Amino acid sequence: MADIIQLLPDHVANQIAAGEVVQRPASVVKELLENAIDAGATLIKLIIKDAGKTLVQVIDDGAGMSVTDARLCFERHATSKIKTAEDLFQLHTKGFRGEALASIAAIAHVELRTKTENAEVGTSIKIEGSQVISQEVVATPKGTSISVKNLFYNIPARRNFLKSNPVETRHVIDEFHRVALAHPSVSFVMLNNGAEVFHLPVSNLRQRIVHVFGGKTNEKLVPVQETTEILSITGFVLKPEYSKKSRGEQYFFVNDRFIKSGYLHHAVLSAFEGLLREGAQPGYFLYLEVDPKTIDINIHPTKTEVKFEDEHALYAMLRSTVKHSLGQFSVGPVLDFERDKNLDTPYDYQKRTPNMPQIEVDRNFNPFEADVPKQKNITFPFEREKTASWESLYSGLEKEHKIIFSDSETHLDTVEFESEPLTGFLFQAEETKSITFQLHNKYLLTPIKNAFLVIHQQLAHERILYEELLRTITVKEAISQQLLFPITLHFSIKEVILLKEYREQLEDTGFVFESFKKEIISISAIPVNVKDSQIKIILEQLISDLQNELPDAGYSQMDVMVKSLAKSLAIKTGVSLSKEQQEHLINSLFACKEPSVSPTNKPTFVTIPLSDLDKKF
Q1: What percent of the chain has pLDDT over 70?
Q2: What is the DSSP string of 301-337?
Q3: At residue 23, does pLDDT exceed 90?
Q4: pTM for this structure?
Q5: Could you give all domains of the chain from N- to C-terminal order, each with its CATH number?
């Protein structure tokens, strides 16, 4: 039998390896930004076009590379970080395996321009599909500039799996956030299709978070800090009232590297126990410093998952630290038997002796006295005659009262008032007996022939609103209610970009936006039957759903948006409905095209035959 096992060619092996490291343009952004950080850059500029599909360029002012290093950096497993296997447990840098640049060069057109500080000229290298096209000497500033063009040009199948530009842009911004939040001492700039999205100056940790997520974030942050022999914890958690249903603003950093850890997330979640609404998620920016020997960061191709040596100790310390911070800043309940917050004395009054208040009472004062003495030196130009006393106002009431009409006198006892007699209605209305009942403010019960229906009021209303909103968007005849004063809402830059993408669809439902600024949205009109207080909640829920669903096609984008709006506007469980509202909800439900299921494919009602009840007796 002939031999069938053979070695893969280098370019095929590189393309396969690239599939593990480079999954989308955001993966390229992550690797290039981390390389710039390792090079000691103080200013990093990220430029993308068409969500990174056409161009991803990272420019830094770091150490740069020599001619030899510039050529070797694109070889597989070429690295300056490790020399022996023991070095894997002493890592203080981002990249170390030497796979990123080699993988990127295998599936894109790459141009590298770099120069060290002492060199007079720099080096320019162009590579296409792992093949070096040219290498020449160029004049370039100190640092490195890497341009990655036409990603996946030689793997059409992988390129077809990329999502739409808005979705891929959100992934790029996520990776940009993760690197920028981990390094507040580095200045970052991001340009998207020529427009500046972020300009983050050098700052401390709190200022960096505020610059990334907007000015309103500052008032939401609660500091967290603790140092032990095992680890050091710094950062911030968001106050419980600012929690969201989505897991958006949740960042763990271990030794300045972003990681994902469900185990550590559960520790934070347990620290917030009793402080969050049902289904809400806490927000946090937590930075853990541990000994590199106690963690293994080489268990995942993207290095976002790490393995800890003593997870139980980290869990307990993280939970207690967050819980202590919430209690220390009066956010969460705390037991302190030596201090009562209500009895705290202001600093200015701590050394003063208390004075007994003096109260003077005029015991001879009588408000019903006949002649009240006037204050001196006060005169009135028009003064009413003094009456004898207040009793004189009621004198003569016991006498017979008369009402005088023109020249005749009429006694009150003889006055009669006529009223029209009640007559029957033109159309006698028969009393209609209601046949709907509300059970536990959650279900509606209505009888039908030989059975009865149990209708879930929230899911039924979601179906009604879903079809109404779809009809409104299709016809584009939404009715809006104008606001007397525009509503100004604050979101992060990423959230404003997302809402701006769906501006047209939202306006078709009745919203009217005045302006979209960097972190502020101004709304001048809202859909009918929507309250002002609901707008913030509706848009936050919409942002959460759009980020989690990540829709690609235009139809699915609109469908996710309409489902989210219907869910936010629907009558919630626990709301009591009048008989008229119950009947209107039932009639509207069965006027829908698909009354049996909600927009999320849950049944809106169930039919219970009377025979099932008969079997119970």
Answers
A1: 78
A2: TTS---EES-HHHHHHHHHHHHHHHHHHTTSS----T
A3: no
A4: 0.70
A5: 10-200 (3.30.565.10), 205-328 (3.30.230.10), 438-606 (3.30.1370.100)
